Please model this.
Amino acid sequence: METTRRLREIFRRPATAGSAAWSTLLDGLVSCLEGEAPSRRPADRHALAGGLLRLEPSLPTLIIPDLHARMDFFASIFEYRMTPEQTVAEALTEGSINILCLGDGFHAEKRAYVRWQTAFQEFVGGFRQHRAMDEEMRESLGLMEMVGTAKLAWPERFHFLKGNHENILNETGGGNFAFRKFAYEGDMVRDWVSHFYGEDFLQRYAHFEKSLPLFAIGGRFLASHAEPAAFYPAEDIVNFRDHPELVSGLIWTDNDAAAPGSVAAMLAAHLPNQVDAVYFGGHRTISGRYRLRAEGRFVQIHNPDRFNAAWAMPDRPFDPAGDVGEIADASGTF
Model:
């Protein structure tokens, strides 16, 4: 299959794509995101694609947590065999499943701690040396190149929500907050991209990030990058550009920081006829396959040491014991 072949090529490539290739991809992605069918993604009051995404409710949905530059995880998803006869990629081409990614494509996590420390010294030195940072950006930009390739191949069935790490400008504003964890990752990425790809590319990539949806409604589930900090009505989610507190409330909420009852209120309002619906999120890490919060109705699945994924089925309630598992690592076969 052409798309899986392309994903393998990106995985094997030893460097990031050039700015010309990336610019072409960004043009296609922004056009695709802004051209989503209104029934799937209603337009906001500025005639731009809104923050609310409606998935085809009759299909199973494979939910993917934070990726954080894990190219091996992402490429393996499409090789995963749902049945002995059919891979995920083949099911997407057939139109028989949805895939929903919960955001956070950039910034390798603790597996790259030592590399971040080396890259910080490169950053301080103005990138006169930049091998470690090049490796980080090969993975971060490579992962997002894969995401873009999948979106253009399966625009109606593959979706990627904005997370708090979709902030290449490392800005504070509009619901974004500048980021650092193991080093000054936000500043380091912004300056590397500006230095090697140019300021125009940096702004165009930021435009792509701000075109991503924030919140998804499936047949029996809701999803956003983080636990909702409060209740948000559909109109405000669609018009997220006018509500920065909503943006931060869907991408930045820490454990125990949400208003009491926010998950239950969101489920009651957005899926009023599904009393057993659940809400999926990533953002905060877990140590196992899943963690249940909000009286068992908020499902966290982001384990940075595992290729966790969850199935949300259209014809039965979510069962965490059976519906959360690991994607087999297929990267050794690429």
